[in-house]
Amino acid sequence: MKRPAVPTAVIAFLVFVSPSLTAVETLNPAWIAVDVGQATKPSFDFDSQDRIHVMGMTEAFPGFVWHAVADNALAEWNFTTLANGYFYGPGDLVVDPDDRAHVAFHDHDRQSPRHIIVSGSQIDADNTIPTTTQHDGWDNSLALDSQGNLHMTSVDPVDFGATNSLQHGIFTNSWSFENGIPGSGSFMYGFNTTVAVDSAGDIHILFCQSPDWLVPGDLKYAVKRSGTWIFSTVIGNGIRGRFPSIAVDDNDNLHAAWLDINSSNTSQATVQYGFLPQGSNAWQISPIDTLNSVALGFSNARKSTSIVIGANGNPRVAYGDKRIIRYGSQTEGEWSLETIAESTVDLYKGLVVLRLDSQDIPGIVFWNPAPGTLGAVRFARPTVTSTFDMKITMDFVDGETVLRWEGPAGETFSVETTSNLSDWSIGQGQLNANSTSYEYREATNSTGKVCYRVLQGSSGQ
Question: Are 70 and 80 in contact (CB under 8 A)?
Fold first, then answer.
């Protein structure tokens, strides 16, 4: 396993946490991280044009659920309020083949799961999902099958008397919902549910069958084949299987990630990876990493791992705790890990959602609270690099040498220069964000040469 490399340069920020505590946050310079808006427990997805769709919400007091969309990470975010009321997260968001965003969450006023479809800034549908009990539909997780049908898993908690807590629904033009699936057993909400659908239409679900945060409970695997649910145990005998996530590859192999809590120090956890080959009943389990500041409790994250499959068929994973957000990719069985954000104090809640765009580039949303506010929903992705031709003009203004250059609309570049104008060689640029044009001025003062660059306009990705 490859450990996270120490970056050669870091970007550090002072973040106000409390009157007596200041966090120093370090962001990976190879990634862009932006604030989307104020909310808790977000989710997101890319659409077919690689626009970014994000949901955010309030929790446990009257508030809202919003949807935001942007062309890229540095572009303007356009917000739509989807609902006002009393809600609980985390919710989930996926974008269908028609570029409609599907948002699901627990509506405490309706005491049921709720599903909203939004196109651009227009709400197309607002559904109270029909369940047979009240106060259910917690820990929502969404997935699309190969036909574009929407699947949702959620929890009918043991806290409210359920004897079988797992729920599953399918949305075509309306919802068909299974409540209290026999054989799932009773368990609490708070550990997340996760669902994936393979090429045959078989439904695969992981959930943690525990009645409380630190009570031992099994990580359970449910599969529905030919209309029948089959349950088995992935791992048990401890405080294991917390916050699972699941993905299926093109060969119908299953990939999963979750946290196993250290019973001797419950702030520590092992990030585990599970692989189930198609046709097998035996999960292959191996560790990815260790976390040292795990967040447990209803106000904390319930999606501490997120796994997806890359274009090469290899798994990618994101995970986090109260002090770190990390991303990993697997090649030939080895994990290469990157720290995206890290804090010297408890800054994050550990929630992460990972998706890949059409170019196989990852994006991650995470969330950190702040005193007196909902906290910031944040989106991160790697800096993109490329090259392109550009036009350069030179002029002399007020005794200064002024160079202006232009590239393709929306692109930006860095330029290698020397102190001697005749030695400059500028023919291509390095794409690391989006812009339209730059101006470079060179001036000399009594202390020597002063060079500076003025950004004339920008947008970004």
Answer: no
Tally of CB atoms within 10 A around 180: 17
User: Minimal CA–CA distance to 130: which of 170, 177, 89?
Assistant: 177
The closest alpha carbon to 222, from 250, 241, 249, belongs to 241
* Res. 268: pLDDT tops 80: yes
Q: Where do we find the tokens 């969450």? A: 105
**246/230 Cα distance (integer angstroms):** 17
In this prediction, residue 48 carries a pLDDT of: 96
Cβ atoms of 340 and 380 closer than 8 Å: yes
Length of the chain: 461
62 and 110 in one domain? yes
C-beta of residue 65 within 8 angstroms of C-beta of residue 55 = yes
What is the rounded end-to-end Cα distance, in angstroms, of the chain? Answer: 31
Q: What is the DSSP string of 50-78?
A: --EEEEEE--SSEEEEEEEEESSTTSPPE
Q: CA-CA distance, 461 to 51, in Å (whole number)?
A: 10
DSSP one-letter code for 2: B
Report yes or no on 3 lying in a domain: no
Task: Kindly state the tokens that stand for 301.
Answer: 């994250």
Residues 6+ apart with CB under 8 A from 170: 149, 150, 151, 176, 177
The model's pLDDT over 61-89, given as tens digits with 9 standing for 90+, comes to 889 999 999 999 989 999 999 999 999 98
The structure tokens listed for 454 are 């003025």
pLDDT score recorded for residue 295? 81
What are residue 142's DSSP bridge partners? 152
Q: Using only C-alpha atoms, what is the Rg of the chain? A: 24
Domain that holds residue 342: 11-382
- Angstrom distance (rounded) from CA 6 to CA 78: 36
User: Within this chain, do residues 433 and 399 fall inside the same structural domain, yes or no?
Assistant: yes
Contacts (Cβ under 8 Å, ≥6 apart) of 332: none
Number of domains the chain contains = 2
Residue in this structure with the two tokens 């299987």, named with its chain if needed: 241
Q: Provide the β-strand partners of residue 34.
A: 379
DSSP 8-state assignment for residue 280: -
Residues of the chain with pLDDT > 70, as a percent, come to 77
What tokens were used for 248? Answer: 């299926």
Residues 266 and 413 in one domain: no
- DSSP assigned state of 421: G
Cis peptide before 277 (omega within 30 of 0): no
Query: Residue 200, Cβ neighbours under 10 Å: how many?
Result: 11
What is the distance between the alpha carbons of residues 406 and 401, in angstroms, rounded to a whole number? 17
